[in-house]
Design brief:
11 strands, 7 helices
Amino acid sequence: MAVWQLDDELWFPNPRWGESDGLVAIGGDLSVERLILAYSNGFFPWYAYQMESEPHWYCPLNRYVIFPREIHISHSMRQLLKQHRYEVTVNHDFEGVINGCSKAQGRDEESGAWLGPHIIEAFTRLHRLGYAASVEVWQPVDTAEGRRLVGGLYGVTLRNAFFGESMFSLVPNASKLALIHLAKAMEHAGGHFIDCQFVTPLFASMGGRHISYDDYMKILSTGM
Protein backbone atom coordinates (compact mmCIF):
# COMPACT_ATOMS: atom_id res chain seq x y z
CA MET A 1 0.00 0.00 0.00
CA ALA A 2 1.29 3.45 -0.89
CA VAL A 3 0.31 7.01 -1.72
CA TRP A 4 1.71 8.32 -4.99
CA GLN A 5 2.96 11.85 -5.64
CA LEU A 6 1.56 13.27 -8.87
CA ASP A 7 3.46 15.69 -11.09
CA ASP A 8 2.60 17.91 -14.04
CA GLU A 9 1.97 14.93 -16.31
CA LEU A 10 -1.61 13.67 -16.66
CA TRP A 11 -1.65 10.23 -15.05
CA PHE A 12 -3.00 8.26 -12.09
CA PRO A 13 -1.57 5.10 -10.54
CA ASN A 14 -3.39 1.80 -10.27
CA PRO A 15 -5.93 2.32 -7.44
CA ARG A 16 -5.19 -1.18 -6.17
CA TRP A 17 -1.85 0.18 -4.97
CA GLY A 18 -3.49 2.79 -2.73
CA GLU A 19 -4.40 2.90 0.95
CA SER A 20 -7.30 0.96 2.44
CA ASP A 21 -9.36 4.13 2.89
CA GLY A 22 -9.18 4.81 -0.84
CA LEU A 23 -6.43 7.44 -0.83
CA VAL A 24 -4.18 6.75 -3.83
CA ALA A 25 -2.34 9.93 -4.78
CA ILE A 26 -1.50 13.48 -3.75
CA GLY A 27 -0.65 16.48 -5.90
CA GLY A 28 -1.20 17.45 -9.47
CA ASP A 29 -3.82 20.09 -10.18
CA LEU A 30 -7.56 20.54 -10.67
CA SER A 31 -7.45 21.20 -14.40
CA VAL A 32 -10.35 20.11 -16.57
CA GLU A 33 -8.15 17.52 -18.29
CA ARG A 34 -7.01 15.96 -15.02
CA LEU A 35 -10.51 15.92 -13.55
CA ILE A 36 -11.95 14.20 -16.62
CA LEU A 37 -9.16 11.61 -16.51
CA ALA A 38 -9.77 11.13 -12.79
CA TYR A 39 -13.51 10.54 -12.99
CA SER A 40 -13.11 8.34 -16.07
CA ASN A 41 -11.09 6.00 -13.84
CA GLY A 42 -13.06 6.29 -10.60
CA PHE A 43 -10.89 8.90 -8.86
CA PHE A 44 -12.12 12.05 -7.16
CA PRO A 45 -10.40 14.88 -5.24
CA TRP A 46 -11.14 15.23 -1.54
CA TYR A 47 -8.97 17.15 0.91
CA ALA A 48 -9.19 19.66 3.76
CA TYR A 49 -8.21 22.80 1.88
CA GLN A 50 -7.52 24.79 5.06
CA MET A 51 -4.88 22.27 6.12
CA GLU A 52 -3.61 20.71 2.88
CA SER A 53 -1.96 22.57 0.02
CA GLU A 54 -2.32 19.82 -2.62
CA PRO A 55 -5.30 17.81 -3.87
CA HIS A 56 -5.73 14.32 -2.40
CA TRP A 57 -7.09 11.76 -4.86
CA TYR A 58 -9.31 8.90 -3.70
CA CYS A 59 -10.49 5.79 -5.52
CA PRO A 60 -12.17 3.31 -3.13
CA LEU A 61 -12.20 -0.24 -4.44
CA ASN A 62 -15.55 -0.93 -2.76
CA ARG A 63 -17.82 1.54 -4.55
CA TYR A 64 -21.15 2.76 -3.26
CA VAL A 65 -23.64 3.56 -6.01
CA ILE A 66 -27.33 4.04 -6.65
CA PHE A 67 -28.71 2.52 -9.83
CA PRO A 68 -31.44 4.89 -11.06
CA ARG A 69 -34.08 2.17 -11.39
CA GLU A 70 -33.40 1.09 -7.79
CA ILE A 71 -33.98 4.46 -6.13
CA HIS A 72 -36.09 3.91 -3.00
CA ILE A 73 -38.83 6.47 -2.41
CA SER A 74 -40.35 6.22 1.06
CA HIS A 75 -44.05 6.74 1.73
CA SER A 76 -43.38 10.13 3.31
CA MET A 77 -41.35 11.24 0.28
CA ARG A 78 -44.11 10.07 -2.07
CA GLN A 79 -46.55 12.21 -0.11
CA LEU A 80 -44.22 15.20 -0.33
CA LEU A 81 -43.86 14.72 -4.09
CA LYS A 82 -47.64 14.70 -4.51
CA GLN A 83 -47.95 18.01 -2.65
CA HIS A 84 -45.85 19.89 -5.24
CA ARG A 85 -44.60 22.12 -2.45
CA TYR A 86 -41.23 22.66 -4.14
CA GLU A 87 -40.02 23.18 -7.69
CA VAL A 88 -37.10 21.05 -8.90
CA THR A 89 -34.89 22.15 -11.80
CA VAL A 90 -31.66 21.05 -13.49
CA ASN A 91 -28.74 23.40 -14.24
CA HIS A 92 -30.66 26.58 -13.42
CA ASP A 93 -28.22 27.72 -10.71
CA PHE A 94 -25.05 25.64 -10.54
CA GLU A 95 -23.12 28.34 -8.69
CA GLY A 96 -25.92 28.73 -6.16
CA VAL A 97 -25.91 25.00 -5.48
CA ILE A 98 -22.14 24.56 -5.17
CA ASN A 99 -21.93 27.58 -2.86
CA GLY A 100 -24.89 26.28 -0.87
CA CYS A 101 -23.13 22.93 -0.48
CA SER A 102 -20.02 24.77 0.69
CA LYS A 103 -21.69 26.95 3.32
CA ALA A 104 -24.84 25.16 4.52
CA GLN A 105 -24.89 24.44 8.26
CA GLY A 106 -21.56 26.30 8.63
CA ARG A 107 -19.60 23.66 6.72
CA ASP A 108 -17.03 26.19 5.49
CA GLU A 109 -16.14 27.03 9.10
CA GLU A 110 -15.20 23.46 10.01
CA SER A 111 -11.52 22.53 10.16
CA GLY A 112 -12.01 19.61 7.79
CA ALA A 113 -13.95 21.59 5.18
CA TRP A 114 -13.11 20.36 1.67
CA LEU A 115 -15.37 22.40 -0.61
CA GLY A 116 -13.19 25.49 -0.82
CA PRO A 117 -12.46 28.16 -3.44
CA HIS A 118 -10.20 25.96 -5.59
CA ILE A 119 -12.74 23.13 -5.78
CA ILE A 120 -15.59 25.58 -6.47
CA GLU A 121 -13.62 27.23 -9.26
CA ALA A 122 -12.61 23.89 -10.81
CA PHE A 123 -16.10 22.38 -10.83
CA THR A 124 -17.72 25.59 -12.03
CA ARG A 125 -15.29 25.44 -14.95
CA LEU A 126 -16.33 21.82 -15.57
CA HIS A 127 -19.97 22.88 -15.52
CA ARG A 128 -19.42 25.62 -18.09
CA LEU A 129 -17.88 23.01 -20.39
CA GLY A 130 -20.77 20.59 -19.90
CA TYR A 131 -19.05 18.11 -17.59
CA ALA A 132 -20.81 18.98 -14.33
CA ALA A 133 -24.47 19.49 -13.46
CA SER A 134 -26.68 20.62 -10.62
CA VAL A 135 -30.19 19.86 -9.41
CA GLU A 136 -31.93 22.72 -7.61
CA VAL A 137 -34.86 22.67 -5.19
CA TRP A 138 -36.85 25.92 -4.96
CA GLN A 139 -39.40 27.12 -2.43
CA PRO A 140 -42.04 29.68 -3.52
CA VAL A 141 -41.73 32.98 -1.64
CA ASP A 142 -43.41 36.39 -1.70
CA THR A 143 -40.55 38.32 -3.29
CA ALA A 144 -39.78 39.79 -6.68
CA GLU A 145 -37.91 36.60 -7.61
CA GLY A 146 -40.82 34.43 -6.50
CA ARG A 147 -38.68 31.59 -5.18
CA ARG A 148 -35.57 30.83 -3.13
CA LEU A 149 -33.01 28.06 -3.41
CA VAL A 150 -33.51 25.71 -0.45
CA GLY A 151 -31.50 22.67 -1.48
CA GLY A 152 -29.86 20.72 -4.22
CA LEU A 153 -26.90 18.66 -5.33
CA TYR A 154 -24.14 18.78 -7.92
CA GLY A 155 -21.69 16.40 -9.51
CA VAL A 156 -19.77 15.39 -12.59
CA THR A 157 -21.58 14.03 -15.65
CA LEU A 158 -19.44 11.71 -17.74
CA ARG A 159 -19.91 8.49 -19.70
CA ASN A 160 -23.66 8.47 -18.98
CA ALA A 161 -23.01 8.35 -15.22
CA PHE A 162 -23.37 10.94 -12.48
CA PHE A 163 -20.56 11.29 -9.94
CA GLY A 164 -22.14 12.96 -6.93
CA GLU A 165 -20.03 15.52 -5.11
CA SER A 166 -22.21 17.21 -2.50
CA MET A 167 -25.76 18.14 -1.53
CA PHE A 168 -27.45 20.49 0.89
CA SER A 169 -30.85 21.22 2.44
CA LEU A 170 -32.15 24.37 4.06
CA VAL A 171 -35.57 22.74 4.57
CA PRO A 172 -36.35 19.11 5.44
CA ASN A 173 -35.90 16.58 2.63
CA ALA A 174 -34.75 19.04 -0.04
CA SER A 175 -31.64 17.01 -0.87
CA LYS A 176 -33.75 13.83 -1.05
CA LEU A 177 -36.05 15.54 -3.55
CA ALA A 178 -33.04 16.50 -5.65
CA LEU A 179 -31.67 12.95 -5.56
CA ILE A 180 -35.02 11.41 -6.53
CA HIS A 181 -35.37 13.86 -9.42
CA LEU A 182 -31.84 13.03 -10.60
CA ALA A 183 -32.46 9.27 -10.43
CA LYS A 184 -35.74 9.52 -12.34
CA ALA A 185 -34.17 11.71 -15.03
CA MET A 186 -31.24 9.29 -15.37
CA GLU A 187 -33.54 6.29 -15.55
CA HIS A 188 -35.49 7.96 -18.35
CA ALA A 189 -32.25 8.77 -20.21
CA GLY A 190 -30.66 5.35 -19.68
CA GLY A 191 -28.04 6.58 -17.20
CA HIS A 192 -25.78 3.95 -15.68
CA PHE A 193 -25.42 4.88 -12.01
CA ILE A 194 -25.05 7.63 -9.43
CA ASP A 195 -21.67 7.36 -7.73
CA CYS A 196 -22.15 8.22 -4.05
CA GLN A 197 -18.40 7.94 -3.28
CA PHE A 198 -18.99 6.73 0.31
CA VAL A 199 -21.92 5.12 2.11
CA THR A 200 -24.07 7.37 4.32
CA PRO A 201 -27.37 6.65 6.11
CA LEU A 202 -29.20 8.82 3.55
CA PHE A 203 -27.78 6.94 0.55
CA ALA A 204 -28.40 3.59 2.25
CA SER A 205 -32.03 4.53 2.88
CA MET A 206 -32.52 5.46 -0.77
CA GLY A 207 -31.35 2.24 -2.39
CA GLY A 208 -27.58 2.52 -2.51
CA ARG A 209 -25.39 -0.57 -2.58
CA HIS A 210 -21.76 -1.60 -2.89
CA ILE A 211 -20.20 -2.91 -6.07
CA SER A 212 -16.59 -3.82 -6.78
CA TYR A 213 -14.24 -1.46 -8.56
CA ASP A 214 -13.99 -3.97 -11.41
CA ASP A 215 -17.78 -3.96 -11.87
CA TYR A 216 -17.83 -0.18 -11.51
CA MET A 217 -15.30 0.27 -14.31
CA LYS A 218 -17.00 -2.33 -16.51
CA ILE A 219 -20.31 -0.45 -16.27
CA LEU A 220 -18.58 2.89 -16.77
CA SER A 221 -16.68 1.61 -19.82
CA THR A 222 -19.35 -0.48 -21.51
CA GLY A 223 -22.66 0.29 -19.81
CA MET A 224 -23.05 -3.36 -18.82
